[in-house]
Amino acid sequence: MIDIKVIASGSKGNCTAATSGTVTILLDAGIAFDKIQRALDFKNPTACFVTHEHGDHANKATIAELLKRGTDIYMTAGTATALNLEPSHRLHLIESKKLYELDDTIPIRFYATPAIHDAAEPVSFHFNWQFKKMSYIVDTGYLPPFDTVKDYLLIEANHSTADLLNADIDDSQKQRILQNHLSLEKVVRYIEGNNQGNLTEVHLIHISRRHGNKEQFQQTIQAVVGDKVKVLAH
């Protein structure tokens, strides 16, 4: 089993820890390092996967501290350039749609897929780990049309389309959100339209405080996947 702990989610910062056995990986690092330390009981994570360079997903000071303490960090070259990071043997630049393995002693294989977001080279991450599969999909306006929903699905459900369109904000801002973030409706279509396989947990993340409702979103997805699947909204 993989234990999922969403440390922070939303526009103020994003960071999720996934643990199996003695190995913990971080998904994004958009919060202060001391907050991550407290959440992990002051244990250093093995690796960190950064989707893109925006500050709520990539706190540069936190990334520097993780590298200094021996955490391997994975991101695209575009993200690293946008963050202006110095080269490091712990900083690994990855390409989309290419399979990687953490190392010979840790049985985690992973690959990235392109995301649609207003960033340099944003990606989503997908993992094969301990005979389980996990996807981390956040800050994207696009989902692959045909896919297998993984055992553990961590996915952005940023807004309800109706709530966003009725919001008292500029049309340009509405359009930016629609193009760069996943709506609840897109998440529903993604899950309904694809093979759900051994889906075990769904974590709804990056829910907007203005254009989303955690309880409603959780109930909506629960109705799609059924009671055997655990659904959490963060």
Textual characterization of the structure:
Helix content is 25%, strand content 29%. It has 7 helices and 13 strands. The strands form 2 sheets. Strands 7-8-9-10-11-12-13 form a 7-stranded mixed β-sheet, covered by helices on one side. Strands 1-2-3-4-5-6 form a 6-stranded mixed β-sheet. The longest helix is centred in the C-terminal third of the chain and has 12 residues, at 214-225.
Contiguous uncertain segments of 5+ residues: none
What is the residue-mean pLDDT, rounded to a whole number? 95
Helix vs. strand class: alpha/beta
Oligomeric state of the chains? Answer: single chain
Described by the principal axes of the CA atoms, the overall outline is: globular
Percentage of residues assigned to helices: 25-40%
Distance between the termini: 20 Å
Got a strand count? Answer: 13
Describe the main β-sheet briefly: 7 strands, mixed
Rg, Å, rounded: 17 Å
The number of distinct helices, counting runs of at least 4 residues, comes to 7
